[in-house]
Amino acid sequence: MANAVTTIGVLTSGGDAPGMNAAIRAVVRTGLAKGLKVKGIMRGYSGLLNEEIVDLDFFSVSDIISRGGTILYTARCEEFRTEEGQKKGAEILKRHGIDGLVVIGGDGSFNGACKLANLGINAIGLPGTIDLDIACTDYTIGFDTAINTAMDAIDKIRDTSASHERCSIIEVMGRSAGYIALWCGIAAGAEAILLPERYDGNEQGLINKILESRKAGKKHHIIINAEGIGHSASMAKRIEAATGIETRATIIGHIQRGGNPTCKDRMYASIMGAKAVELLCEGKTKRVVGYLNGDFVDFDINEALAMKKDIPEYQYEISKMLVHR
Known about the structure:
alpha/beta; four-stranded parallel beta sheet; 11 helices
């Protein structure tokens, strides 16, 4: 069967995520194995519009699988949100002979891929985001590394919090999605987990729980706060004033985006990258690769973007049962 594409481009867009390099490596080497040319597009859609396009060969992606971040760099691009920018991007791709494109990123990146597909460029999306907030997939590239990085930091903070008998508010990433907070809260044995999808703003209830725990003999307290709720420093001051317990806030921040990817992120990202190339070789376009119910699958991009995702209620109920009541 003849290949539906002859030259594949690959770019990373939006926030960086550990495992993106593994996906890039898999796209390049799978493409080459199938007799295709592969080009890297630097700095996402911004680099596309600036024609920052380079040839990639087998050795271009040597020794990158263990590195966090993305060797192609990433950037946001307002111009590409416009119809003129999208047409310009498609024309540049065609001028460079790129008839298939792999886009590694989140929902916004997939929207861009869909626009390019409408303009004649076969496009496949890979879910690259530490937030796990893409509805069509149970796994997103970078999530596993991010939660392990955060969990390690939380464990260390717990040690010093216990030594000083403090209350510690630890803010993890997740502007509109609480998956990092939920997983880290359960895995690190937090006394409270504040999620954007569930938090009702009842700070007094949180204060009462801390006081009750202290009366019951609890000497220190860990509160996991998602970025989407934020204001951890001011929250710490209010809790300390109300309880008399020394309270410190720690914002873990962007260390969650970096670092060596876990084995899972390297493995799953590699399989997703290879699958993206296979889909392009089958003549597929406007697809998103996902991991669902133990298998690697693909969805129509528009169908995937229309799906809604919420915190699993069962997991949330378990998180409430496991904290001190």
